[in-house]
């Protein structure tokens, strides 16, 4: 899953980037509204965290510009805790959720996870994504197969399998998968996706992820 954080507090964004990476996300950062709007328009994110008090262009204007495109990526707005009018303005502009500052990272994480699952109509309890005979534990980054075997996943294996499970039976190109596994400024190699697909096949079964020659891969239900 790929996440965009638009926030001008660089100390906060650095901390959030580290914590979200540890939770299995690829994370891009923007520190002003102009850059944030551009990145939100050019890159297919799974969710966006948007501060309202941004330099160059405020968050409400950025959000309105996205929704006018329309870009329907789930957005959680960060506001001052007592600024109720900002929350109202954010919802009117198209926000999906809000969180007041200061906040606990754990709450932000579960809100982001809930927004992504809701967007894919994959609402599950206890942060367990249940699909295709697989149970993906988002908290512990493990997958349990139908035979009851549980496997630990590396960060990129987890990101990749979660994306497959949120898009079952869809043909996903290597470039699309790469976009949702790596950050914006990472040196990417789409051939590495083949390596991670082989790793996943060893865990969940060689026939579960099908190669569509010349097109990409598909997780079969």
Structure description:
The chain is α/β, with parallel strands linked by helices. It is 41% helix and 22% strand. The chain has 8 helices and 11 strands. The strands form 3 sheets. The protein has a 5-stranded parallel beta sheet, with helices on both faces. The protein has a 4-stranded antiparallel beta sheet with strand order 6-7-8-9, with helices on one face. It starts with a strand and ends with a strand. The model has no long low-confidence stretch (mean pLDDT 89).
- Strand content is 15-25%
Order of helices and strands: EHEHEHEHEHEEEEHHHEE
How many strands in all?
11
The parts where pLDDT drops under 50 for at least 5 residues are none
Radius of gyration: 18 Å
Q: Please state how the strands of the largest beta sheet are arranged side by side.
A: 2-1-3-4-5
* Span of the ends, CA to CA: 20 Å
> Residue share in helices?
40-55%
Which characteristics define this entry?
four-stranded antiparallel β-sheet, 221 residues, alpha/beta, five-stranded parallel β-sheet
């Amino acid at each position: 899953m790929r996440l965009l954080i638009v926030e001008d507090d660089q100390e906060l964004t650095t901390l959030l980037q580290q914590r979200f990476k540890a939770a299995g996300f690829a994370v891009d950062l923007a520190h002003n509204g102009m850059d944030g709007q551009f990145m939100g328009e050019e890159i297919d994110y799974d969710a966006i965290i948007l501060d309202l008090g941004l330099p160059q262009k405020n968050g409400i204007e950025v959000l309105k510009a996205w929704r006018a495109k329309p870009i329907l990526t789930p957005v959680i707005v960060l506001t001052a805790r007592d600024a109720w009018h900002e929350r109202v303005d954010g919802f009117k502009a198209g926000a999906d959720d809000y969180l007041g500052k200061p906040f606990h990272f754990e709450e932000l994480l579960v809100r982001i996870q809930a927004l992504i699952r809701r967007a894919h109509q994959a609402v599950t309890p206890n942060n367990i994504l249940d699909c295709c005979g697989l149970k993906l534990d988002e908290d512990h980054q493990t997958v349990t197969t139908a035979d009851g075997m549980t496997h630990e996943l590396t960060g990129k294996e987890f990101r990749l399998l979660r994306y497959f499970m949120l898009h079952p039976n869809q043909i996903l190109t290597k470039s699309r998968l790469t976009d949702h596994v790596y950050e914006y400024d990472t040196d990417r190699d789409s051939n590495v996706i083949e390596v991670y697909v082989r790793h996943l096949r060893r865990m969940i079964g060689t026939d579960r992820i099908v190669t569509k020659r010349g097109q990409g891969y598909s997780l079969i239900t």
